[in-house]
């Protein structure tokens, strides 16, 4: 029997903010709602990395005052999705290769600790939920439902952290997982990357099922290593495309400037009795 714990949310952003919330039916504040909508727009590429997030523009878009918008941006700053700078305001965080090289080893270390704990404990309830997540991952991948697959990847990964009972690891993994969301769509639009992630996930689940913490740990490092390589490739492709676009704009402007007509010199007619200005 399916628990409905995985892939049941229709809103992608709600998954990333309220996953395993102790009180999911609690009324959300307006800043919380705005933060979720902004996450959705960042994930689907409406707001690109480095793009300014003007409070006035956002307040008009969402038809709210600037106060709740400002609070929502602060929430996203804490999650690493938005960067705040003095005199410049908020912008979508621009991930760098160094950022990714720092994030993924930490994720691998913490997730492996959680997976090892689950392998040692071996809970039938946890195993049933891991199997449910696996089934839904493969289903979403086969159907080419990228949005659903991204949700499931996040839910499944974070469930390992939550089920382990390690609260410190859970909090850090939740935060680090959110920071790489802007690259998730570029990575998982590739069916090969979806297949690789699903296969590596199966390795983790099988290690936990067998009560083998070493196998579970090795599978975690394989999964994180592969997704790190895919994320770095997506980042380089995105940056190369942005660079090429900027070059094209510059070249277009230069071509336009070169073809502009030079202003014609005017011949001034001299007044009677005035010296001629002509040749």
Descriptive terms for the model:
279 residues, mainly alpha, Four Helix Bundle (Hemerythrin (Met), subunit A), Arc Repressor Mutant, subunit A
Tell me about this structure.
The chain is mainly alpha-helical and 279 residues long. It contains eleven helices and three strands. It has helices spanning 12-18, 30-43, 55-62, 66-79, 97-121, 124-143, 146-164, 167-179, 181-188, 191-209, 213-258; strands at residues 52-53, 82-85, 89-92. The chain is globular, with a radius of gyration of 26 Å. The mean pLDDT is 85. Residues 241-279 are annotated as: Disordered.
Helices, strands, pairings?
Blueprint: H1 12-18, H2 30-43, E1 52-53, H3 55-62, H4 66-79, E2 82-85, E3 89-92, H5 97-121, H6 124-143, H7 146-164, H8 167-179, H9 181-188, H10 191-209, H11 213-258
Antiparallel strand pairs: 1-3, 2-3
Order of helices and strands: HHEHHEEHHHHHHH
In the sheet with the most strands, the strands line up as: 1-3-2
CATH topology of the largest domain: Four Helix Bundle (Hemerythrin (Met), subunit A)
> What is the class of the largest domain in the CATH system?
Mainly Alpha
Total domain modules = 2
CATH superfamily of the largest domain: GntR ligand-binding domain-like
